[in-house]
Amino acid sequence: MGNVRYVTADSEALRQVLTNLLDNALRHTHPAAGFTVSLEPAPGGMTVSVADTGSGIAPEHLPRIFERFYRADPGRSREEGGTGLGLGS
Fold this sequence. Notes:
A hairpin with a 2-residue loop joins strand 1 (35-42) and strand 2. The termini are far apart. The protein is built from 2 helices and 2 strands; from the N terminus they run H-E-E-H. It has 89 residues and is of the alpha+beta class. The longest helix is centred in the N-terminal third of the chain and has 18 residues, at 11-28. It has helices spanning 11-28, 74-80, and strands at 35-42, 45-52. The protein has a two-stranded antiparallel sheet.
């Protein structure tokens, strides 16, 4: 099975983060384009990366993406059922 690594984490928080990342990648990437998820060892843990070809976040919204309930595009989020939790806790 290759290199097995164990990560100590809050399982519910990890589930929420991964669900948010993967849900956004699925929702905002053209079905034919797909997306990539990768795990890499990092000092003190692991790095999880999700790369997609979706629309991304406009530069003017980047300073606020960690605010709880912030929506960069409230109209699109409502139409597509997002919770608006952003990336913050």
